[in-house]
Amino acid sequence: MASVLIVFIIILIQFAIELYADCGRPGYSRHSMVTEARHRYADGKWVEYRCKTPGNSIIYGYGYRKCEGNQWTYSIPKCGQKLSSSKVKKYIRDEVIVVSTPTPTKLVGVRIKIAARRDVDIEVDDVKHLPEPNCTREMRPEKDTYFSRNFVFTCSTLIADTTELRLSNFIIIQFTTSLVCPPTCKSTVEQVELFTTGRDDCYIPDRPDYGSSRLVKVNETEYSSNEIRHEFNCNPDFQMRETRENYDYCPTGGDWQYPQLPQCIPVSTCKLPDIPENVIIDYTDLFQRNRYVIGGVIKYSCPETATLSGSPSQECLSDGSWTGTKPRCIAKPNSDQKSNLSTYLLISVFVSFPIILLLAVILIVVCIRQKRQQERSGLSSISSKFSTKSRGLPAKPTDDKDEKGNPRYSTLIRNEYHLYDDVENDPNYDYIQADQINQNLSEEVKYDVPKTPAVQKH
Predict the structure, then answer these.
(1) What is the pLDDT of residues 165-175, one digit of tens each?
(2) Between 20 and 30 A from 338 (CA), which of 225, 322, 352, 435?
(3) Is the dihedral of CA 171, 174, 177, 183 positive or negative?
């Protein structure tokens, strides 16, 4: 039973180590820097170092470091300072170059520039009197010269702890091709530079993931003692897991001791939200194993063929929830769909236009017919008033006196508003037809006297 419990505890420890295997910011020396500086790095990530003044300095130690299990591999590299050209001497014999200085010092590297013809290839064969050398070659072509190829060889030591270096005043480099110009002149040495440790001490140590370091002052000054000490702290909303040491120190002129860095555990986290597969997620540095710490931000985007709907980013809150709304990507209509839509619209226009034109013609014809029927019905109503049979009037007497005194005649002057009103309302009069009416309204018209009713026989 005890063995099973021990195995279970070991598995939990391995899982915890894997869960928090990412590394914090790597340290650097006074004159070196990290090319890609970030707050934290995923497990297996490599970082590269370079000097702040690359022309007058050279990286020694391992210029590349890797994050493995919450720790950075190798020591923090440093930058060697170039010696004055007046203090550097060179001696060339066939394939060998000897670079020396009159005063012994801790040499950390050498840089040699060689010009050669196009058909000449040069490599470093051996380096002596430089501990654990590491050489690189860089080619810089030149135009319109006899020596059309330039080789720059940089050799430096992989030891960063200056206490392990010995005093020396020369370095020997052997190449694969003769460097003596006469009589063939296939190549020539143009420049030789020698580098020493200088004063590049420890500056900032490696820091834990989600943590930082703080310089601990000794005797009220930063460098008054024989060592530099930094104390580790965790970021807000994180707490430090129990550890034996929460600091690192570096002896003056030496190297950091690289203890096991403490682990900073988040106090509260947010679970990664359920996001559709077609949404592109941009994780920030605070992302860790499908969980986000407080203040962590997720940014969303969509492919070119879709449009983002919802919040473009979400932030992890202290209560474990996320701000904003859930994003999703809505597909855009492609070019084929757009062309099909245009075709459908064009066909619908050609089909619907004749139908609309035909309906308009039918509507116009119906309106014209209705108007004509209304006009005909109006004329028929007027003519019905004068539809009774007319009878002839007696001849007009020649004597005006007889006309006026004759009771058989009566005179009626037509007016514009009442057309024979007294006659129309009397059934004993015969009416004059409408076509027999004189258009001159001032003309006098004679009407016969009322008919004598017929005497009925008994």
Answers:
(1) 889 999 999 99
(2) 352
(3) positive
Structure tokens at 421: 């009103």
pTM for the model stands at 0.54
Catalogue the E-assigned strands of 4-44. Answer: 32-34
**Whether pLDDT at 364 is above 70:** yes
Domain 18-79+202-265 = CATH 2.10.70.10:
yes
Matching fold, domains 18-79+202-265 and 268-331: yes
Averaged pLDDT for residues 48-60: 91
Listed residue (117, 114, 111) closest to 136, CA to CA:
111
Specify the CATH architecture of the domain 268-331.
Answer: Ribbon (2.10)
Instruction: Just give the CATH number of 83-196.
Output: 2.60.40
Helix residue spans in 279-410 (DSSP H): 335-385, 400-405
Q: What is the pLDDT of residue 432?
A: 47
Cβ atoms 121, 137 nearer than 8 A:
no
The Cβ of residue 387 has, within 10 Å, a number of other Cβ atoms equal to 10
Q: For residue 420, is it left (φ>0), alpha (ψ between -120 and 50) or beta?
A: left
Q: What is the pLDDT of residue 304?
A: 85
Instruction: Please write the tens of the pLDDT for every residue from 258-288.
Output: 878 888 877 767 877 888 888 888 865 455 5
